[in-house]
Amino acid sequence: MGRFRGGLRCIKYLLLGFNLLFWLAGSAVIAFGLWFRFGGAIKELSSEDKSPEYFYVGLYVLVGAGALMMAVGFFGCCGAMRESQCVLGSFFTCLLVIFAAEVTTGVFAFIGKGVAIRHVQTMYEEAYNDYLKDRGKGNGTLITFHSTFQCCGKESSEQVRPTCPKELLGHKNCIDEIETIISVKLQLIGIVGIGIAGLTIFGMIFSMVLCCAIRNSRDVI
């Protein structure tokens, strides 16, 4: 009986440690998602009227899952401390929802990468062509693209040089830079999503083991 209670206490502390880590991970996920959405290149690009809203779906899911992770982390601590099967069962269900959300984010980031890149490249080419037709019409849009991706023009930068960053040395093809930058960002989002999904698996295992141990201890008593 003493060994059984000792094992139960060990599992409880493991779950408490997991929930603390899970709460911190939720905070990091929220910060990560908001930084990608409202900071740097993405912030500048999102100010345009033609910004692809679906491009941000993965980030919105990521931020929402991060907020849920923080709430669930606190919820799981309460369940472990009170040794409540009901609370632990609800905790397991919440982790399952988070797992599905994070896997969705990761899959969306990897699978939707090509579509997002092509969409942004099309936006750039439209702005590029509009500028060549009317030097005043597409000026602001091209400046935003060139500043965001630190590039200038396509095959040549001579025709759009006035819209390029002054600090940019040499020529950088914007079509290539768009593909590189967006690909890297979406890969990071996908890796974070899949990584958090893997973390939730351990939480589900700990919660179910503790729940079963609590039930068995009560049966013994």
UniProtKB/TrEMBL annotation:
Keywords: Glycoprotein, Membrane, Transmembrane, Transmembrane helix. It is a multi-pass membrane protein. PROSITE patterns: TM4_1 (PS00421). One of its GO terms (cellular component) is nucleoplasm. Belongs to the tetraspanin (TM4SF) family. May play a role in signalling in oligodendrocytes in the early stages of their terminal differentiation into myelin-forming glia and may also function in stabilizing the mature sheath. It comes from Macaca nemestrina. Its main location: membrane. InterPro entries: Tetraspanin/Peripherin, Tetraspanin_animals, Tetraspanin_CS, Tetraspanin_EC2_sf. This is Tetraspanin. CDD domains: CD81_like_LEL. It comes from the Eukaryota. The chain crosses the membrane at residues 12-34, 54-75, 87-111, 188-214. It is found in: Membrane. GO terms for biological process: astrocyte development; axon development; inflammatory response; microglia development; myelination; oligodendrocyte differentiation.
